[in-house]
Amino acid sequence: GAVVSQHPSRVICKSGTSVKIECRSLDFQATTMFWYRQFPKKSLMLMATSNEGSKATYEQGVEKDKFLINHASLTLSTLTVTSAHPEDSSFYICSASAQGIYGYTFGSGTRLTVV
Amino acid sequence: DAKTTQPNSMESNEEEPVHLPCNHSTISGTDYIHWYRQLPSQGPEYVIHGLTSNVNNRMASLAIAEDRKSSTLILHRATLRDAAVYYCTGGGERNYGQNFVFGPGTRLSVLP
């Protein structure tokens, strides 16, 4: 079946630094990838949609300069949290979809803690 | 996107059946009903989907009301590993390129 690998699973960083999260589709080509953010006990909130080779589409209220998304290949999308602050601490999840593959395949998530 | 309503939480005993309801009164005629679940500290995983007829797979069964305004996810014998947040949502069958909108979901607790 379709597998999405997300790395790292857990990261702690200092305020002001940048953190990159990778999302890879292992056995299929993901033409579209989605990035979600999830606070404790809350549902997933879509941050942005990225299509391979084009700029990401950000949801309202999500700062594109703070959350940089790159989808340079059909198997890799990255989310970079720039100049991280403690309020950026959250669980970040990616998902991927592609023609011929049912629904969504989600990554296992990245827990970011900014200290 | 179809707006869904689910109970915040439910509790079940191990090895007993669980019926998780979802109201989706605004679902369009062509939207499928999808169920995902999220185990603690993991990304969501697909459970089941259907359009009009009831559906069964190795994980669960999906009973869809005749008017399609509600559905019920059935876990036939709950195990401790089924403790998770269950989300129902609506969308195209394959949702290629489309985003799912996740509501708060139902947090299922399974008691030993």
Describe the structure.
The complex is a heterodimer of chains A (115) and B (112). Chain A has 115 residues and is mostly beta strands. Chain A has strands at 4-7, 10-13, 19-25, 32-38, 45-51, 57-58, 67-73, 76-81, 90-97, 105-106, 110-114. With 112 residues, chain B is mostly beta strands. A five-stranded mixed beta sheet of chain B has the order 1-9-8-3-4, with no helix packed on it. Chain B has a four-stranded antiparallel beta sheet with strand order 2-7-6-5, with no helix packed on it. Classes of the chains: A mainly beta (115), B mainly beta (112). The A-B interface holds A 4, 6, 31-32, 34, 42-44, 46, 49, 51, 91, 93-95, 97-109, 111 and B 34, 36, 41-46, 49, 87, 93-105.
Question: Which helices and strands, and how do they pair?
Answer:
The complex is a heterodimer of chains A (115) and B (112).
Chain A: E1 4-7, E2 10-13, E3 19-25, E4 32-38, E5 45-51, E6 57-58, E7 67-73, E8 76-81, E9 90-97, E10 105-106, E11 110-114
Parallel strand pairs in A: 2-11
Antiparallel strand pairs in A: 1-3, 3-8, 4-5, 4-9, 5-6, 7-8, 9-10, 9-11
Chain B: E1 9-13, E2 18-23, E3 32-38, E4 45-50, E5 55-56, E6 61-64, E7 70-75, E8 84-91, E9 106-111
Parallel strand pairs in B: 1-9
Antiparallel strand pairs in B: 2-7, 3-4, 3-8, 5-6, 6-7, 8-9
